[in-house]
Design a protein that fits this description.
mainly beta; nine-stranded antiparallel beta sheet; elongated
């Protein structure tokens, strides 16, 4: 309220707002030319090729090939966090093409026996997404917590995908729309990165807070 003593005053307004909530940004990757975070760059003939250029991370994979590549990140994946990325699909090369994000990975290239990670992948050509945990410790590939691929109307060629963890829940977003809430994706590793299967993609950024 107001106090006034032996005065004439004119009060035009009173505004009250909460102090802004400043996020603790752990990673704000924009893929500059220096590749400061050491994203993997390499190729195997015409099978696959990864490189950074013009502020993007390019992953190109031909039929029958997949790239899973990440970086270590000092983040407690079993507490509250947010992971977000803008990814452009340049070419899906088969009916099985997909790409997306993995987190809590046990290695930089989680392909081998004993590797594990959580993932959120999308197939924009067929308007599908998938969430799950892969645990190769027993040689089992793609051990899912959800029932396979799920249809959505929110996918485009260029997509913003986001995972928010709060408590035991993971809120999954596509282009700003909440499309799923899942539980049971506890993590053991420190790696975060991208998956790309039979596709050419351009990754514009990766933000973790």
């Amino acid at each position: 309220g107001f106090l006034c003593y032996e005065s004439d005053i004119k009060i035009e307004n009173l505004r009250v707002s909460e102090t802004a909530n400043i996020e603790n940004v752990v990673l704000n990757e924009e893929f500059n030319s220096n590749n400061n975070n050491k994203w993997w760059e390499g190729k195997q003939g015409a099978d696959f090729n990864t490189f950074t250029s013009s502020g993007k991370y390019f992953i190109n994979t031909n039929k029958g090939f997949q790239v899973r590549a990440g970086i270590p990140l000092d983040l407690d994946y079993n507490n509250k966090f947010s992971i977000e990325s803008d990814i452009l699909l340049a070419d899906g090369k088969s009916d099985n093409s997909y790409h997306g994000i993995f987190w809590g990975g046990s290695s930089q290239f989680p392909h081998g026996e004993g590797d594990s990670f959580n993932y959120f992948i999308i197939d924009p050509d067929h308007n599908l997404y998938r969430i799950g945990k892969q645990d190769n410790s027993s040689g089992v590939d793609l051990e899912l917590l959800e029932s396979g691929w799920v249809e959505t109307t929110f996918l485009k060629s260029n997509n913003n995908i986001k995972i928010d963890r709060d408590g035991n829940e993971y809120k999954i977003y596509i282009n700003g729309q909440l499309i799923d809430v899942v539980t049971g994706l506890d993590s053991e590793g420190e790696y975060i990165g991208f998956l790309c299967y039979e596709s050419d993609i351009k990754i514009e950024n990766l933000r973790v807070s």
